[in-house]
Write the structure tokens for this entry.
Amino acid sequence: MSERRDTRVRSIDVARLAGVSRSAVSRTFTPNAYVSPETRSKVLKAAAALNYHPNAMARSLITQRSGIIGIVSADLQNPYYAKILEVLGGALRDTGLAPLVLFGDETSSKSQVAQLLSYQVDALVIINAVTSTLTENISRMKVPVVAVNRYFRHDWVTSITCDNQHAAELVGNHLLDQGCTRIGLVAGNSDASSGTDRETGFLRALAKRGVAPVVVENGDYTHDSGVAIARKLFGSGASMDAIFCCNDLMAIGLMDVARSEFGLRVPDDLLVAGFDNSVVGAWQSYRLTSVDQNVEQMVELAVHYIQRALEDDGKEAGQFFQVQGKLVVRESTGRSH
Amino acid sequence: MSERRDTRVRSIDVARLAGVSRSAVSRTFTPNAYVSPETRSKVLKAAAALNYHPNAMARSLITQRSGIIGIVSADLQNPYYAKILEVLGGALRDTGLAPLVLFGDETSSKSQVAQLLSYQVDALVIINAVTSTLTENISRMKVPVVAVNRYFRHDWVTSITCDNQHAAELVGNHLLDQGCTRIGLVAGNSDASSGTDRETGFLRALAKRGVAPVVVENGDYTHDSGVAIARKLFGSGASMDAIFCCNDLMAIGLMDVARSEFGLRVPDDLLVAGFDNSVVGAWQSYRLTSVDQNVEQMVELAVHYIQRALEDDGKEAGQFFQVQGKLVVRESTGRSH
DNA sequence: CTGTTAGCGCATTCAG
DNA sequence: CTGAATGCGCTAACAG
């Protein structure tokens, strides 16, 4: 394997084998370039024989386009984020773009982002890592940035989210329609728009029908925080007939504790609804009513936007797209089977 | 933003501002190169003023080293795979390497892999995508390949797995120690070594104590297949007192059905054990006994191997490292709390 | 320790 | 439609 470097096959090698010039080789591998069918096939044959592939580094050096999209991602243990990353990665792959991922534990420091930029990423996608430092760094980088699942109020950033307010309203109305009157809310931490929007929408739905929430708690979107809040809530003896958690993971943690530590049955004693429609929520143990954020459509919008930004060199930044979520009703909010 | 290309700052810009040559700039950004402290600081100051970062593309073109590690990953909905990817990505980042991920739905076709290679990846890590086509393609690429969580019998591939046989033996012994005699096994599909090794080890543990499994089924490591197998098993009326599933997801699917559709209680009516020790298994609804594969250690070995391969140009390929798994006993195999 | 020279592998002018 | 020449941004050899 030590001959790896020596073995490297360059365009001039296939040019010689095919009896043409390097330009001819380059052209056959460049979309819509002028090459005659004959030379093209000669080149392709020689390339196949030598197992030649153009060096993307050298190419991007001259085209000023790397084909690499930087992705900032965190908390893959949350199945919803894992799904976004997977769907996005697949969509980029199908578009001929390559995802360079920065797995940032909230600490997407300047140097990390700088490393990403040194690879000349054509665009940056931020999935869920919201750090103030990251936001600052963004403004310094002259690259199209799109935030999926987060809203950034920033001229350089195009945001794509679910219409969280409206979707949360759907949940609120659904719980009211089920006859609930003593309703609790488990919101997220207030530094992300997605969380506050859900809170706003949900409370608005209640207010429209003259209902005030019995209790409002703040979690951090983890299963653990759902567990902790459940212990606090049920331990205090507050009486509720329904709880909306701002994501599935918290709803699931809450259900786990409600059943295993307080003997509460869902939905008999308590209705529970979540948000994200993650696969886990559909399992038989939970059958969790939730909101499908339509990840596929969000990703489609993101990739589409990136492609356009590559063409027009990133005019049209700072836009805000919203996708409509869909209420998925399951047994966790239904009386009986 | 259209002036993005124009705004690009190159080494010559900071050289001029600092009043030195391009080489001086290059050297200050090259680890252990000869630069005097004074020029170094002059360069750094100018670089900071201009917000200069070396172009990794141009650099790798000359150093023949990209710093990019290709990762082939699939099925992020399985929290165990998601964890491997996240931990690996973090470890690479901390080493100054960048992960270029190919999210392959079992269809890591030749062209996809070729795209990865065109970016001159220094090494390739395969997490869980086992396709015969992929294996063939690997042999053509002169790049160090390391398979995490899979064993490839291939001269070019270094494999790192948990000692699946031994770990599965631990599970078998544990179930026997709990007094179980009518034991079922839910194995994986037989095309991956990890699955067959677990099956082998588990059955060996039983055989050593003169016990034959009541039933052996094959799943595909998804929650759905756990569900389907559970329906088949419990529907047939076979009497068992314990079941070992070759991963957590299948164990969880099986538990879900056992409880919701057949009224079976775990562990009162049936002990259940899984494999992977994924976070989900620790939730209060499952409290699943499982095997911790020590992902951190596997990843550490992988990154360490990659670093060495980068230094010696990939001699020492074809090795096989094994990590010892650890049995994590929870209530799913314990009589009472 | 520094600046100058040369070239990594390729796409793209420009003549032909 | 093709080949020769030029340079993308950078590091590495060399001579000072």
